[in-house]
UniProtKB/TrEMBL annotation:
GO terms for molecular function: calcium channel activity. It comes from Petrolisthes manimaculis. The lineage of its organism: Eukaryota, Metazoa, Ecdysozoa, Arthropoda, Crustacea. Residues 297-445 form the RIH domain. This is RIH domain-containing protein. One of its GO terms (cellular component) is membrane.
Length: 634
């Protein structure tokens, strides 16, 4: 009995030890199974690469054996139906896991299928069967793993299970993203991008070692931590410094007002300054890859390079760079890097819908009051009717709130202008949402229709015209962009927004502003475009514009005067008023054409335009089509 008691007391502590040991063993087993899952994922990735290579070799072989016919204009007619049938029949076999698809390999013509026995020696390279049972054993293993009570293992197993049953979709989706590097320049670009991407990722991951920190946040002990940090910096420098391609020197234009090149900001260690410099050079190269400058001075996208950057995932590393915490007040070098990063993202999605959609997934990163972020969001939505048509009310409210709380900056209005019109199409849903939010925010609407405020605005037109192009917070420029936004919201005949805008900017205020002798062409252009879309080219007839003296007053006191100024201007183009010429040629001709083409214009009197005024304009400034339109209206 004594022995039994002792044995019983001993067995009381044993289950706890066994339970602890069992838990450790279970965790070890589960981790081992996770490693097996990683191996299976690697095998599936290899199979995916193999299948894509097979498809490419099939296309290449069919193209070589049956070249497409080239017309007299040098246009290829593509693959014939017979070629497509051959491609389809051969592509089916790469998904067959139950047979040896030995004949699908690079360089093996379709005519040699009957000789497949000659290639049986390379069975390990052509057999896509994972388990010798057509994938059945593989599925049984995955189903068994999904029944465990270990969430990471279950999640990874389900991912593999879904992937197994969507093999064709996976291949097609990845095949669309294949980019062939045909020219030597493409190969060199790939090598440089790969090297820069690895270097940038390494620097971003170790940013806490080199990004400047103010002294208030440093550790008081100057000994150990700083030495360790310096050592880590040295290690980082040795690991991530590019070795193959020497970094090209920046041009004088790139170095202009560069805080990094001028050494502005707080003092840094040489290793820290070198890291700032390396990132600057990487971002400059990336920007030059995305766009090129045309003869007219505008930026044009380099679509092949944009796609290459997208396929390599460079934008992801740049987004991580934007999330690095730093001292925005003192660290001027980092401010420059952040600006270059935003410039890259803007160029990255210039005219590229796929890149725009990619950055749109990370839109929450840009929903802050920063003007750089606002400019980047504009680039994401620019001329993309799909994204503009689905913009959420939350995003619009964010920019309205930014204007109310962080000042009347033009860039906030630029975004609202971007989403109401895309690819020449006016998006009524966006127009209604923007108009609703703008009309309800008193701090957003700034008009100068009272006597005192009107005189203030006239003084601004006299004094601030030369600096409004580069001053983002100029009240003059803000008012011009606000009127342009209202015009965009009414463009395309939107009755609901037209009615709201009538109360915001009446006809009397428009006439008083445009007819003033000190009114500048930029203001006239904004007001006349608003007049055209809100009062003339409307969904509902506006009898006031046709039955009153307003339009004729504008003709006599403003339109004819400006046309005469352009027609009688000296021939020296170096001193020409291009803003006035643009206003006359575009805005005036548009509103005159729209007014006289309107079915309601018959209700008005006819104004006789003197031949001595419009004939010089037609001869020197208008295209033949515009001249014909003007003569028809006249």
């Amino acid at each position: 009995m004594m022995g039994a008691r002792i044995g019983g007391s001993g067995s009381g502590s044993s289950p706890k030890k066994k339970a602890g040991t069992t838990d450790k063993e279970d965790t070890l087993v589960m981790d081992t199974k996770l490693n097996i899952i990683e191996i299976l994922e690697f095998i599936l990735n290899v199979r995916l690469d193999y299948r894509i290579s097979c498809l490419l070799s099939i296309f290449k072989r069919e193209s070589d054996e049956n070249p497409s016919v080239i017309t007299s204009d040098g246009i290829s007619q593509g693959l014939k139906n017979k070629n497509l049938e051959n491609i389809w029949s051969q592509a089916q076999s790469i998904f067959d896991e139950t047979t040896q698809t030995r004949y699908i390999r690079m360089g093996l013509p379709a005519a040699n299928h009957h000789n497949e026995g000659n290639y049986s020696t390379s069975e390990e390279n052509t057999n896509l069967d994972l388990d010798g049972e057509g994938g059945k054993k593989f599925l049984r293993v995955l189903l068994h793993l999904t029944m465990h009570e270990y969430p990471p293992l279950v999640s990874r197993s389900l991912q593999l299970l879904f992937r197994h049953f969507s093999q064709r979709q996976e291949v097609l989706q990845n095949f669309k993203q294949v980019q062939l590097l045909v020219q030597d320049g493409d190969v060199e670009s790939y090598k440089q991008i790969k090297e820069d991407q690895d270097d940038l990722r390494n620097l971003v991951e170790k940013s806490e070692l080199w990004v400047y920190k103010s002294h208030s946040t440093d550790d008081d002990a100057p000994g150990g931590k700083k030495k360790k940090k310096k050592k880590d910096d040295d290690d980082d420098d040795g690991d991530s410094k590019p070795k193959k391609h020497p970094a090209p020197r920046l041009s004088a234009q790139d170095k202009q007002e560069s805080a990094i090149d001028l050494g502005l900001g707080p003092p840094l260690e040489p290793e820290q300054a070198d890291n700032y410099k390396r990132i600057q050079q990487i971002l400059v190269r990336m920007n030059k890859l995305c766009v090129m400058q045309t003869s007219s001075g505008n930026l044009a996208p380099r679509r092949n390079e944009q796609r290459l950057l997208r396929n390599m995932g460079v934008h992801s590393v740049v987004l991580e760079l934007l999330q690095i915490p730093y001292d925005k007040k003192e660290d001027k070098r980092m401010n420059e890097l952040i600006e270059l990063a935003h410039q890259f993202l803007q160029n990255f999605c210039l005219g590229d819908r796929a890149n725009q959609a990619l950055l749109h997934k990370s839109i929450d990163l840009f929903l802050n009051p920063g003007l750089l972020e606002a400019k980047t969001i504009c680039a994401v939505f620019k001329d993309n009717s799909h994204l503009c048509g689905e913009v959420s009310e939350r995003v619009i409210q964010h920019f309205i709130h930014c204007i109310e709380t962080h000042g009347r900056h033009v860039q906030y209005l630029k975004f609202l202008q971007t989403i109401v019109k895309a690819e020449g199409t006016f998006l009524r849903r966006s127009q209604d949402m923007v108009m609703q939010e703008v009309s309800a925010a008193e701090d957003v609407l700034v008009f100068y229709n009272e006597r005192a405020s009107f005189n203030t605005f006239v003084n601004m037109m006299k004094e601030d015209r030369n600096r409004m192009d580069y001053d983002d917070s100029s009240p003059l420029r803000y008012h011009i962009e606000l009127v342009k936004l209202l015009a965009c919201c009414t463009e395309g005949k939107n009755a609901s927004t037209e009615i709201k805008c009538h109360s915001l900017l009446p006809l009397d205020d428009i006439v008083a502003m445009v007819e003033h002798k000190d009114c500048i062409p930029e203001v006239k252009e904004a007001y006349i475009n608003f007049l055209n879309h809100c009062y003339i080219d409307t969904e509902v007839e506006m009898k006031e514009i046709y039955n009153s003296h307003h339009i004729w007053s504008l003709f006599e006191k403003s339109f004819l005067v400006d046309m005469a100024r352009v027609a009688t201007a000296p021939p020296d183009r170096r001193h020409a008023d291009k803003a006035l010429e643009s206003y006359v040629i575009n805005s005036l001709m548009t509103i005159i054409t729209t007014f006289f083409n309107s079915p309601f214009s018959d209700q008005s009197q006819t104004i006789q335009v003197p031949c001595g005024v419009w004939k010089p304009v037609c001869c020197y400034l208008l295209s033949p089509a515009m001249e014909l339109q003007f003569m028809i209206c006249h």
